[in-house]
Amino acid sequence: MKLDAILWDYDGTIVNSVPKNIDITKRILSIVAPHLSGDNLPQCLQSEAAYHQVNHAAKNWQELYVKYYGMTEAEMLQAGTMWAEHQLTNTTPVTLFEGMKDTVKRLSDIPHGICSQNAAMNIKGVLSQAKVDTYFKAVIGYDDVSTGGQKPSPEGGVKCLERLFGKPDGKVIMYVGDHEADVKFARNLQLELGQHSTVISVAAAYSGALPDTWQTQPDFVIRSPFELTAICEPYL
């Protein structure tokens, strides 16, 4: 099989966005749920290590907000509507993981795409600033798919492949992500594309994920972006 494209998650996979995400969350909490700010700030928002732990434990952002931050469902829904605005206006620096730029450069003969629950405009800005934007031919953010089509729904993956190829049929795709939901996304994308396509799931463990504990297992685990090159070699 020859690899046709590499699709990526963004937060926790391409970039370490934890400092920015924590700052955004704290600001939103101060507006939507002030009883969870200041001295009552949830423990999991008081350090990057604590945030990593709950972020990888939660099934999705809704569970993260309710189960781990202690928000009500109404507060969670209101917070969700504010996230995009704060992502675009927050100036906390976001950096690529070590080895990411070299890895996509080494694999630049393969088209790269991004399927994320971050805002596409925000992602493109960071990629441009890091001078890696030319490697990513398609960027699908949460605002490019329907509310019910967020990961692990395959909707974003299909749209990303359509931007890359027009028709996504009969392709060999690799998807790299740091959450169990990303593995489920890859499996759902496989089901959506059908038997003539192949979707290979790669778990990125370098941002704190513990793939060994997941019920849905990936095909490969990498503990550094550099390791992806070796995985791709048989498919080149």
TrEMBL record:
Pathway entry: Organic acid metabolism; glycolate biosynthesis; glycolate from 2-phosphoglycolate: step 1/1
- GO BP terms: DNA repair
Q: Which Gene Ontology terms of cellular component type are present?
A: cytosol
E.C. designation(s): 3.1.3.18
Q: Which reaction does it catalyse?
A: 2-phosphoglycolate + H2O = glycolate + phosphate
| MF terms in GO | phosphoglycolate phosphatase activity
The record's annotation in NCBIfam families points to: HAD-SF-IA-v1
The entry's family comment says: Belongs to the HAD-like hydrolase superfamily. CbbY/CbbZ/Gph/YieH family.
Q: What is this protein called?
A: phosphoglycolate phosphatase
Source organism phylogeny:
Bacteria, Pseudomonadati, Pseudomonadota, Gammaproteobacteria, Vibrionales
